[in-house]
Amino acid sequence: MLFELIRLELLKSFRSTAFAKSVMVAIFLGFLAIMLLGYLFMAGIFLNRILQEIAEGQDTIIVLNSGLIFFFLVEFMYRYFLQKLPVIELESLLHLPISKKKIIHMLLGRSFFSPLSIVALILFAPFALTEISTQYGMSGAISWLGTVVFISWTLHWFMLWFKQRFEDSLIGVIIVFIVLLLGGGSTYMGWFNLGEMVSPFFTFAMSSFIPMVIMLVLCLVGYYLAFSYYLNNAYLEDLAKEEEVRFINQSVGFFSRFGEAGELANLEWKLIIRHKKSRTFLMLSAFFLLYGTIFYDNPAYQSGPMQNIFIFVGIFITGIFTIQYGQLFLSWNSGYFDFFLSRKDGIKNLVKGKYLLLLSISLLCFLLSIPYVYFGWKFLLIHFATFLFNAGIMIHLIIYLAIWKPKPMDLSKGAMFNYEGVGAAQFLMIIPMMVAPYLIYLPFALIFNFYAGLAALGTIGVVGILFFNQLAAINVNRVLKNRHEISSSFRQEL
Questions:
Q1: Per-residue confidence band for 210, with pLDDT thresholds at 50, 70 and 90
Q2: Is 465 exposed, middle or buried (0-12, 13-18, 19+ CB in 10 A)?
Q3: Cross-referenced InterPro entries, in alphabetical order (predicted)?
Q4: Where does 208-249 have alpha helices with state H?
Q5: Which has the higher per-residue pLDDT, 254 or 483?
Q6: Where are the domains of the chain?
Q7: By C-alpha distance, which of 159, 139, 161, 160 is closest to 211?
Q8: Does 169 have pLDDT greater than 70?
């Protein structure tokens, strides 16, 4: 039966109309994966030397044991964003006369065969065989390496359950935030050192097989947890009901006050929370709210020319979603762009609706960044000035640049390694977006002082907000002028 399922998967791939394209993409991703794994293997070979440079004079084994927990925190994060769920394949197989348990075992096993599953092995195996085996023998090296690998595999099975259970809910976002805060933030802020707390466990693993056995059991428990959840929810009607309930009543009420543009903003918001790529942008915006902790508490940036970098940080924190989502301004609507062309004021309301949505999320990012006042009132002024500039100027600039030769995008496809809608314009537009605020800020900051630059930045933003209709008309007219070229490019087969 296992071979039958494999045969069906191969037939599905061969019969696909995009088979040639899929093969080329698979070859490219395979080459990329081999290259990255090769870099990791080289890093593993030189890991001892790297640790000696970082912690000069300290025992590299102790240093690594203290830092392993942070590696797994990073693994938790990249698995959350990169690890693919087998849900779509599950829906395509449930109607077949095959045991549901066998289908789920096959899908879970298939998900395990991924480059992510051997990252820990490739990175730490050279260190275990060359350094740990020297001091603790080969049995100590195997026990330590087995413990590390089983933790990584436990995260794999846990993430399959976690993403399916919480990915589309606020609870999932809160859990990820707590893990990030308690993991990296606690050590950075000096609350407690999580690495030193966990280090004895890995030290014990070098002299005993008990930690490896514990992690093996947890790995099996993680597999059973994922298997049980998929088995209990593997019904087509349950999946359809879950999809229906998950996104129902997700409208933003105050958008309705802005007429048809507000209704389009509401529809755009529903698109964001339903599509993995846009939802990833939204979640990354939440994570990048912590970006300021890298700079605001660092004495090197507190005075002199180096404090000018705070403008970039403020633009990034309050406008990261605008920068990411706005780069694909029309690509999100490529499938029904002609609908807006056929309606009276359709393009005008589309542009205004997107502006309203981007402005709302930027405002939310600013409000969530208010706690940075803990580092000083200066940082609240920075965020306020950069928010005003984002609202009055930056959103219009991003929309203007994104209208240049937009690419079509298929919203039914995945989020990671999906470059549909991305062209040369999306890579080049980052330059004027980062330069624009400094063109306003620097002259006043250099002639007068830092706060004069902030005042100029905020004032230009307020002027842009007051002249919203005129600035929006520029983008509307540009879309209308190039509507036939844009519409033709969107009709091309993806």
A1: very high
A2: middle
A3: DUF5687 (IPR043742)
A4: 210-232, 236-246
A5: 483
A6: 43-245, 253-490
A7: 139
A8: no
